Amino acid sequence: MRHRSLLIMTTAITAGALTLSACGSRDDKDDSGGKDGKTTVVIGVDAPLTGSLSALGQGIKNSVDLAAKIANKNNEVDGVTFKVKSFDDQAVPSSGKANATSMVDDEDILGAVGPLNSGVAQSMQGVFDRGDLAQVSPANTNPALSQGDDWASGKKSRPFKTYFRTATTDIIQGRFAAQYYFKDAKKRKVFVIDDKQAYGNGLATIFAEEFKRLGGKVVGRDHLTVKETDFSGISNKVKSSGADSVYFGGQYPEGGLLSDQVKQAGAQVPVMGGDGIYDPAFIKASGTSNDGDLATSVGYPVEQLDSAKTFVKNYADQHYKDPYAAYGGYSYDAGWAIIQAVKAVVEDNDGKLPDDARAKITEALGKVSFDGVTGKVSFDKYGDTTNKQLTVYKVTKGAWKSVKSETFKD
Amino acid sequence: MHELPQTLVNGLTLGALYGLIAIGYTMVYGIVQLINFAHGEIFMIGGFGALTIYIWLPSGTALSLALPLMLIGGIVASVAIATAAERFAYRPLRGGPRLAPLITAIGLSIALQQAVWAFYPDAKKPRSFPQFEGSSFEILDNLHIQRGDAFLLIAAPLCMLALGLFVSKSRAGRAMQATAQDPDTAKLMGINTDRIIVMAFAIGGAFAAVAALSHGLKYGQINFEMGFIAGLKAFTAAVLGGIGNIYGAMLGGVVLGVVEALAIKYIQDIPGMDQLGGGAWKDVWAFTLLILVLLVRPQGLLGERVADRA
């Protein structure tokens, strides 16, 4: 008897919950449609909001939030109010996939910004594609995400129509770094290290290929493990290899320690990395001086663009708890790209959202073009940014200073 | 082979660090047969305790002066958390199913990590830790010892010596051995076993704090996640050396550290093993060794001296 009553109760509760939630979502719609005639469009944000990369994730979330607030303030899209709903992926692919599923299920979400990590993006792309929900990543740099797994052999094909990004791919970043090391810094013997992750390993491989193509020599290759702190073994190998430089594909927590330990092992050579190490925490991570270490990052330095100055000021006005960090500008642009796509769709449809809003927005995203925080924002046929401006930064007296900015040419 | 001494010293310092943390696992296991998976976080909190003291001190205080105070700060933080964990998380479950405290330990570990992440200022990113000024000591042409490592190489044997004397000579230490051998009889002999258990947690916490301070000095930073991998490696070291045996924990740590260092350096030089060497595979070799040792000696390297486990 007890089992039966339990069963009945569970059924009743489930049915009740379903009815209520169904009512709830309908109510929401009526609400959003009813209040001074405005429709609410929600932009989903997926980023690591906790964990060791949370500083970057919080910056992404706040920057998208800022884009939504500015759009609402300027009445960017007539009759539409933007809201942001954030999801924490902890830099774990499975969490990212679960978040993507929740976003697809939430009918109010018409576009998503994120994630931070290429590895997480791999698990989310399929879900978004099936749900027709457009995704703009501010930080993914792995080429396969937009150009397919065979990009290296020249057979590029876009795997998912819903995937866009405002960050430049590793192909461009890795080759740019190799050219800087070989041509500008006159390095000939490099030791390449990566963290075995999709981002780090991909970037290091592209760098090594280009460096060899230019005529340099890769004198050693090794891998380290994320979250470890002792890299003295690898550092000793760098020293005994006689390398005049180190390239590291990975993130700042390991990068900072690695740079420090390489120097402690007695190898006075610079360590260079991608945007993953371009963060003040890279310098803070090691007690002794990182001076001379290098990082490439996408776009021009924030101080050199007027639109970026406005962003920095607006961000400061909101008094967010965490700084906008390395990807703030790209996140703002990613959010703004979705807002622009919504605008195009609404204007095409007599000032209302069409029934197939998601598909229309995905289509419209491919055509957006505006001057963003990081320069001109538009997407090519793969969904990659057309912005190929890159900057090399160097640690000078305990701070990142830009040393060279240019548009990458093949 | 001229880099062998440096590789061995690197392995030794890393191993000494593992060993100091492993003491906490082994002490607690020896007395209450509990694997305290939150011990990695107790280690991490020791680091933050020491850093807090350094921040409180007037800026410009010489590190050599600050060091004893930081050590005290770290020990106070670690011991407080370790004993509180014993009192509020583990004691209510004593006598319950063996899995209950184990799951509690995992939950506690996550809770402590998130608490530091959320409440310690600026702890979302690695916090930099003070370091000794000056270059490393050059012992031989090819052998350098970092100043931070020197602290660890002095502190670890001293702590072991003190603990060895305490366990074998003092009244409380002998009570500990008695409780480890047979808690019920120990109780009948008038030993307050609850106090002994708290003491085991406290000693483990104090050793973790010494390890955390060494870790900070060695790497120049601490972060809220550092307890996870360090704890895992230390637990491995404790099992390798024979869990329950304090000397085994230190030996296990040193063996583990040296194997990792040698694996990074030399495995890939063996013909045909090019793909299986380097930093990517060091953990594989360390765990292969662990499995081999456990196959031959299931009780661990020094595990047979049951009378000594405490």
TrEMBL record, chain A:
Alphabetical UniProt keywords: Signal
Pfam families registered for this protein in UniProt: Peripla_BP_6
Domain Leucine-binding protein: 40-398
Family indicated by similarity: Belongs to the leucine-binding protein family.
Protein name according to UniProt: Branched chain amino acid ABC transporter substrate-binding protein
Organism field: Streptomyces rapamycinicus (strain ATCC 29253 / DSM 41530 / NRRL 5491 / AYB-994)
From TrEMBL, chain B:
Protein name per its UniProtKB record: ABC transporter permease
Subcellular location: Cell membrane
Membrane topology summary: Multi-pass membrane protein
Gene Ontology molecular function: L-isoleucine transmembrane transporter activity; L-leucine transmembrane transporter activity; L-phenylalanine transmembrane transporter activity; L-valine transmembrane transporter activity
Species for this entry: Streptomyces rapamycinicus (strain ATCC 29253 / DSM 41530 / NRRL 5491 / AYB-994)
GO cellular component, one term: plasma membrane
Keywords in alphabetical order: Amino-acid transport, Cell inner membrane, Cell membrane, Membrane, Transmembrane, Transmembrane helix, Transport
UniProt record similarity statement: Belongs to the binding-protein-dependent transport system permease family. LivHM subfamily.
UniProt lineage: Bacteria, Bacillati, Actinomycetota, Actinomycetes, Kitasatosporales
Main location class: membrane
Keyword check for rRNA-binding: no
Residues spanning the membrane: 12-32, 39-57, 63-85, 97-120, 150-167, 196-217, 237-263
Pfam families on file: BPD_transp_2
GO BP: any one term: L-isoleucine import across plasma membrane
CDD domains in the cross-refs: TM_PBP1_LivH_like
Signal peptide positions on this chain: none
